[in-house]
Specification:
heterotrimer, A mainly alpha (248), B mainly alpha (556), C mainly alpha (116), A: 248 residues, mainly alpha, 9 helices, elongated, B: 556 residues, Cytochrome C Oxidase, Chain A
């Protein structure tokens, strides 16, 4: 960025403001406020982005409730709960990371970020296990989707505990919509996780160089907001997809 | 016309200030890597003008095809591609960014007394996203086009067409993020970057209008993004969410699409209304009548805008009961729009009105927008909508609001702030002529379409029954006049870059903070951050200020 | 990212006063309490889902999800200690989200009512 370096080189008054203050802000407070507010607005756009998917979910759950029941029996409540715990823990370590940055504890900050990073990877790992099972059972919409488990539940040992009645073919086919919503919502969520983990990697690198323990923690703080937001999305996805349709 | 408020400096001695944001740095890279909001505004201005003329050429082709009842100029599927491209380019690449990304970008920090937008790099990023989106649309055009119409209605776009829906969809997705970032930047700037003393109710109405439009950009555009993602997934993997054979509901797409695309028309028109407020006040030398009402009506339009989208779907099979609700809510939007029109009219009342070009365009806006808005009420009432929708009545209504309203406002604003942006005046007489030509051409083009629509001529067909030909010939003839009206400004504005008169700081004797600094402004806008100690549109303050300056120079 | 490099070079340990003027630092104790609450609520919601409570299943699950989300927003995301503007922003997002869902549903739920 040619212009920002040019500005850094010009004698900037008598250096009455810190070097990380961008030239167009009047004060550090203004800069912190503005960037934090911008992050919140960005999160609003994310809410609305997921909002479209939630709307679709609500409509189709109302229309095809039996298919949603049969579909949600295919999800493993253990993996889902474990993932919820992993993600909540990562949110906790992230919040602690922000606190460490505020307190200028460089070592602790790096530790928190690394833990968050590992927990994030762990979440994606568990998600991969779940996805893999769906691939094996042909429950991925658009890719040789099979309704076998739903028209003939006896053939599927995984759902024996639920004693599902066979669905009529037209309803069974609507499980594809359930699985589409499952993949769209968790996939979109996972994409946000992957982006977040990428940024986390960069942050760990910077934090070790001491970049966030100088009193200027805007970046850590705003990333924290993003990470917690991704956590909140999961807090809703978990009951919607795993829990609320278990009993037909 | 003897009376004019234009006060230019003595042309024999006046010079454009040596240091300004244009001369500060040279070379292509200094433009492409800039984070100066004024330079980004100019980048935007060049790119949207480019796309406007491509979209305009498409419009010309459409009108030429419709000169005769048969489809003889081009094949019918080519016609489908042409009107789709016209819609996509004009909506997503011209109207949505038109005023906000150019004038808004340039002026909001100046009007608020800030050095730049809050997030200058994000601002630059948004221009690059726009360019990427634009290039993808151009790619779509050369690689065979797309024929879904700009609305991408499912299942047509997902199942029945084999044109470049994917590249167009991605283009709109990317351009949408450009618009999100612009809106986000404006909201943060307006909240956090105001100069001391610049309270909310001292802000120019231009800023209020942009604030309202930005809310819509930030909250509406993501829903369009997810709708497009779903269409693309439906096309590529066949996920079934909009596919009736798999239990999906094609109408859901329209709900999501219009949740954005109806507010989008307010994204397009609100900044234009902001321009009109500034122009009307300046050229009638009066504070805008009912400042607070006009300011809040912008916000009201933005809020109501989210409650009305279903009126685009009245004949698509939505429930009768929700139709009733949406019909009533839609009519509510007429209230804040009318507040604006009435308040502008009251501003004119007993004002010292002069008729410079921006004012002529503003008059055009008021007349044409009123017609466009009132015909909107016909379409809001579900009974008449069933007869009129999908006919040329819709086309005429939309173009009255968007071309008669928004484009007039855009041209008004470009002329009004041209001296501030470039430091030079545009030639007055020929531009007044251009404004007149545009107005006449516009009415010739689009008024017949109201009649065509009520007679039942459907939109989006290359051919039509011969009895509609007379009105269509009128319309095409009008389009040629309109084309001249749009070409003229390009020519004389370019000419004025070199030969225009030196404008000085404040050629219109306007009150905004942007007029109190040199033109073109410095890169950092203000030498020292101004303190706002008066209301917006306070012409007495300006007089006192001029008086003071005179005393200083005479003493000196 | 040039500002990051600069800040590294100009590292001054005593510029704490330029930041955090009226910034509320949430203590780790709060975070630990919030974390435990979230864990407990996750347990409760999983447990509740094991019983067939008819219409109450989704109600309970979504209520708990809302409580959890609110806790995260208020404490982890510091909204409880933030400006009114931030609170308003969160509210605006929620409001528009509910309009999207609510107004869309007004169509879907009344379609079955048929004609007048």
């Amino acid at each position: 960025m040619s212009d920002s370096t040019a500005i850094a080189q010009t004698p900037h008054g008598t250096h009455e403001h810190p070097p990380y203050q961008r030239h167009h802000f009047e004060s550090m407070d203004q800069q912190v406020d503005a960037t934090g507010f911008a992050m919140w607005l960005f999160l609003l756009t994310e809410i609305m982005f997921f909002g479209g998917l939630f709307t679709a979910y609500l409509i189709y759950r109302n229309w095809y409730f039996p298919a949603f029941v049969a579909g949600s029996h295919q999800l493993n409540i253990f993996w889902g709960s474990l993932n919820t715990l992993v993600l909540i823990s990562s949110s906790f370590t992230m919040a602690m990371g922000v606190w460490c940055a505020e307190m200028r504890k460089q070592g602790a900050l790096v530790l928190c970020l690394v833990l968050t990073f590992i927990l994030g990877i762990g979440f994606l790992g568990i998600k991969t296990i779940e996805y893999k099972e769906k691939f094996e059972k042909h429950h991925v919409p658009g890719l040789h989707f099979s309704v076998k488990s739903f028209v003939d539940p006896a053939s599927d040992p995984d759902i024996a505990q639920y004693h599902d009645k066979p669905l009529r073919l037209d309803m069974a086919r609507h499980t594809e919509l359930y699985f589409f919503l499952y993949f769209a919502m968790t996939g979109m969520h996972a994409l946000h996780m992957i982006i977040g983990i990428g940024i986390l990697g960069f942050m760990i690198f910077r934090a070790r160089a001491g970049a966030y323990t100088t009193g200027h923690i805007t970046f850590v703080e705003n990333f924290g907001l993003y990470w917690h937001f991704v956590d909140i999305i999961w807090i809703f996805l978990f009951p919607l997809l795993y829990l609320i349709s278990r009993h037909g | 016309m003897s009376s004019t408020i234009v006060s230019l400096p003595d042309q024999s001695t006046a010079r454009i200030p040596k240091t300004n944001f244009i001369t500060k740095e040279n070379g292509l890279l200094s433009w492409l890597l800039t984070s100066d909001h004024k330079r980004i505004a100019i980048l935007y201005l060049i790119s949207i003008t480019f796309f406007f003329f491509i979209g305009g050429a498409m419009a010309g082709l459409i009108r030429l095809e419709l000169l005769t009842p048969q489809s003889d100029l081009m094949a019918t599927d080519t016609y489908n591609k042409v009107f789709t491209m016209h819609g996509v380019i004009m909506i997503f690449l011209f109207l949505v960014p038109s005023v906000p990304a150019t004038l808004g970008n340039f002026l909001i920090p100046l009007m608020l007394g800030a050095k730049d937008l809050a997030l200058p790099k994000v601002n630059l990023l948004s221009w690059y996203l726009y360019v990427v989106g634009g290039i993808m649309v151009l790619y779509t055009m050369v690689s065979g086009g797309v024929d879904t119409g700009w609305t991408f209605t499912t299942p047509l776009s997902t199942h029945y067409l084999n044109t470049n829906v994917i590249s167009t969809g991605l283009a709109i997705f990317v351009a949408g993020f450009s618009s999100i970032f612009t809106g986000l930047n404006f909201i943060v700037t307006i909240h956090k970057m105001r100069a001391p003393g610049m309270t909310w109710f001292r802000m120019p109405l231009f800023v209020w209008a942009h604030y309202a439009a930005s809310i819509l950009m930030v909250l509406g555009t993501p829903v369009l993004a997810i709708a497009i993602v779903l269409v693309l997934l439906e096309r590529t993997v066949g996920i079934g969410v909009f596919d009736p054979t798999k239990g999906g509901d094609p109408l859901l797409f329209q709900h999501l699409f219009w949740f954005y695309s109806h507010p989008a028309v307010y994204i397009m028109i609100l900044p234009g209304m902001g321009v009109i407020s500034e122009v009307i006040s300046t050229f009638s030398r009066k504070r805008v009548f009912g400042y607070t009402a006009v300011a809040f009506s912008s916000v009201a339009i933005a809020v109501f805008g989210f409650f009305v989208w279903e009126h685009h779907m009245f004949i698509m099979g939505v429930s009768n009961y929700s139709m009733l609700v949406f019909s009533l809510l839609t009519m509510l939007v007429a209230v804040p729009s009318a507040i604006k029109i009435f308040n502008w009219t009251f501003t004119l009342y007993k004002g010292s009105i002069t008729f410079e070009t921006p004012m002529l365009y503003a008059f055009g806006f008021m007349g044409l927008f009123t017609i466009g808005g009132l015909t909107g009420v016909f379409l809001a009432s579900s009974g008449t909508d069933i007869h009129l929708t999908e006919t040329y009545f819709i086309v005429a209504h939309f173009h009255f609001v968007m071309v008669g309203g928004m484009l007039m406002a855009f041209l008004s604003g470009i002329h009004f702030w041209w001296p501030k942006i470039t430091g030079r005046m545009y030639p007055e007489k020929i531009s007044q002529l251009a404004a007149l030509i545009t107005f006449i051409g516009f009415n010739f083009t689009f008024f017949p379409q109201f009649i065509l629509g009520t007679l039942g001529m459907p939109r989006r067909y290359a051919a039509y029954p011969p009895e509609f030909q007379i009105l269509n010939v009128f319309s095409t003839a009008g389009a040629t006049i309109l084309g001249v009206g749009y070409l003229l400004p390009i020519l004389y504005l370019t000419w004025s870059l070199k030969y225009g008169e030196i404008a000085g700081n404040n050629p219109w004797q306007a009150t905004g903070l942007e007029w109190q600094i040199q033109s073109p402004p410095l890169t950092e806008n203000f030498i020292e951050i101004p303190i706002m100690d008066h209301d917006a549109y306070d012409y007495e303050w300006l007089e006192r200020q001029n008086q003071k300056e005179k005393e200083v120079t005479s003493v000196g | 990212m040039s500002e990051h490099q600069e800040q590294h070079e100009h590292h001054e340990p005593d510029n704490r006063d330029v930041h955090d003027t009226d910034f509320h630092v949430v203590s780790p104790v709060t975070y630990i309490i919030v974390f435990s609450v979230l864990l407990v609520l996750t347990g409760v919601t999983v447990l509740a889902s094991l019983f067939d409570l008819n219409a109450w299943n989704p109600i309970i699950a979504l209520f708990i999800a809302c409580v959890k989300a609110t806790t995260v927003v208020l404490f982890f995301m510091h909204v409880k200690y933030s400006s009114r503007l931030t609170k308003l922003t969160v509210g605006a997002g929620l409001f528009t989200f509910l309009i999207l869902i609510g107004m869309t549903m007004s169509d879907y739920f009344t379609r079955a009512w048929g004609r007048w």
